[in-house]
């Protein structure tokens, strides 16, 4: 099965009813569950409230018993600008491993609270003027504040409530996508037995 590429980025507001289901549908269509090794890379730091979306999401996934995928980046062991290249070693990227990269970002005021899925790598550190290697085959970005003025200041002055709520919803959607894939596999196996 070929994974259909997104033609445009897809956006979901974390507070909209049904957001977790719709986000899980996009992930189910674009993450090759059961076809390739998959890892989740959650970028950010707990030293800045706005930049905590990634490690909060990683922690929420890590706390799920039986989460079956390798996971890098949690509140306890964050993945950030100072250790990103060491922990990921992007120069040795394996074509076999499909990487879903998760990070906070800044955007237009009207987009605050949106979760954006794109079929391309994300560029960590861009909001604060850092140049780091691109990460991921698929990116999930959470717009935590407006891109006005100093990016560091905007991330530091973000209320924790927003990235916390967005991270919980993102983790729920990832788990839902995985469980939906597993359910479909079981149903398909059942149909095969009856043929």
Can you walk through the features of this model?
This protein has 195 residues and is an alpha/beta fold. It contains five helices and six strands. The chain has a six-stranded mixed β-sheet with strand order 1-5-6-4-2-3. Helix 2 links the parallel strand 2 (38-42) and strand 3 (71-72). Helix 1 (19-30) packs across helix 5 and helix 2 packs across helix 5 (161-194). It is globular, with a radius of gyration of 17 Å. Mean pLDDT is 87; it is low at 1-6.
Helix content: 25-40%
Number of strands: 6
Read across the widest sheet, the strand sequence of neighbours is: 1-5-6-4-2-3
Quickly give the structural class.
alpha/beta
How many angstroms does the end-to-end distance come to?
A: 21 Å
Contiguous uncertain segments of 5+ residues: 1-6
Specify the overall morphology. globular
Q: β content, as a range?
A: 15-25%
- Number of helical stretches of at least 4 residues: 5
Radius of gyration from CA coordinates: 17 Å
């Amino acid at each position: 099965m070929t994974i259909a590429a997104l033609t445009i980025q897809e956006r979901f507001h974390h507070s909209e009813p049904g957001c977790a289901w719709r986000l899980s549908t996009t992930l189910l269509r674009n993450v090759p569950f059961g076809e390739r090794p998959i890892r989740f890379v959650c970028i950010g730091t707990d030293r800045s409230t706005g930049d905590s979306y990634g490690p909060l999401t990683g922690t929420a996934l890590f706390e799920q018993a039986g989460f079956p995928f390798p996971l890098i980046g949690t509140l306890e062991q964050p993945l950030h600008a100072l250790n990103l290249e060491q922990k990921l070693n992007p120069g040795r990227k394996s074509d076999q491993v499909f990487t879903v990269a998760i990070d906070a970002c800044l955007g237009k005021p009207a987009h605050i609270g949106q979760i954006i899925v794109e079929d391309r790598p994300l560029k960590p550190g861009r909001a604060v003027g850092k140049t780091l290697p691109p990460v991921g085959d698929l990116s999930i970005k959470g717009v935590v504040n407006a891109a006005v003025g100093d990016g560091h200041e905007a991330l530091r002055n973000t209320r924790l409530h927003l990235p916390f709520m967005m991270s919980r919803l993102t983790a729920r959607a990832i788990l839902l996508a995985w469980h939906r894939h597993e359910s479909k596999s079981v149903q398909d196996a059942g149909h095969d037995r009856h043929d």
